[in-house]
Amino acid sequence: MTRKVLIMTQNFYPVIGSAGNRMKNIFQLLNDKNIETHVLTTEPAYPNKNLYKDDQFWDDDNIAKDEKKIVRVPIKNNHFSNHILSRLFFYVEIMWRFLLKLWKLRKEKYDYIYVSTPPIFIVFAAFVGAFFMKAKVVLEVRDLWPDSLIGVKTFDYPIIIKCFRVLEKRMYNKSDYIVINSLGFEEHILSKLKNKAKKIIYLPNGPRKQEIVCEKERQSQFRVVYTGNLGLAQDVDHLKKMASLFHIHDIRFDVLGYGMKTKEFKEHVENNDLSNVYMHNPTTRKKSLQLIKQSNLSIAFLNDNQVFETVLPGKVIDYMTCQTPIIAGIKGTAAKIIETNKAGFVFDQDNISEMIKKVLELRENPNQLQHLAENCTRTIRENFLWEENIEKLTEIIDR
User: Fold this and answer.
1) Cα–Cα distance between 90 and 76 in angstroms, integer?
2) What pTM value is reported for the model?
3) Average pLDDT by consecutive 10-residue portion of the chain (399 residues)?
4) Is 139 in contact with 123 (CB distance < 8 Å)?
5) Which CATH number fits domain 210-383: 3.30.540.10, 3.40.50.720, 3.40.630.30, 3.40.50.2000?
6) CA-based Rg of the chain, rounded to a whole angstrom?
7) CATH of 4-206+385-398 among 3.40.50.2000, 3.30.70.890, 3.30.420.40, 2.60.40.420
């Protein structure tokens, strides 16, 4: 008998970033495995709704064929503010609209609801839907919440945080299965579970086979790249310092960034006349990977907060996919993967001078750089291919 799955997620194709691409891959691969999979999501709006009026973002013909399986609900409050109360109202609106849609779908015979967090409010809408549909809930955790909320230092209301922790614990315990995209989350989640034997599945972000770069293009100029969010979790001040030093050392620095701190970074580039820094507008995944492929090295930063030690940023996987070794100011899970697989070098995030020194050293040592690039490809093939890792999810669904 064919299994039927409903994916509930805030971010889905064509939304840029790791979350949207992740949900797209799960949707496509489950359908390829003859598991009938539908999606309940919002209309694309991140980082802004107008971005998706450009046809270039709707570049996957296979998704277009399956559009009948995708329900997109409109959200009135689609302004991405850094004010925490505005964000909470935004998440509550999504939860409410998802609940209304789930009520209309209540007669559908879904076997599983696959729901992605953050935000956690969507999860509780999924529990309501699962009750009416008599479905099991697979909870995907892409971020430890509310710890990440505390980590970006925008919310400091102990009573509300305590309430959020109660909701977090209930969320883990009420779900039937839990999926994580970073092994760093496992210990924290286990500490909240009453049933320590509950199945936790590690399903990391990764590329499809056709996205893996096997051979780099030779460039006339040495290039370093940063792609992804420039927000509260990323250390934009350190990135600004690196941009200035790259300019001094005549190194081209490509930045494809979006998020709350993008304007601040652009102003730094303009005010200091950093002509070697090239800013790129948000674009499709294909074009983003092409930019990374054209680069010799990549940069990754996260704020120095303990909660971010558990995170495995999607950009780290994208860099390795494109054979582009990483210079990182991060700790914990991501640092361990980079160091263990010899895919780059990890530093204390304040040690900008040593990072620059290593970049200059690698610029003069193409053989070492090539060895690191080969390690990137080996790591991806052995651990991060979607076509192989999806079997961990299909196994529990087919059960």
Assistant:
1) 9
2) 0.93
3) 91 93 97 96 89 92 90 76 67 90 90 91 94 95 80 69 87 96 94 93 97 85 93 82 95 92 94 96 94 96 80 95 96 96 95 96 96 97 97 92
4) yes
5) 3.40.50.2000
6) 21
7) 3.40.50.2000
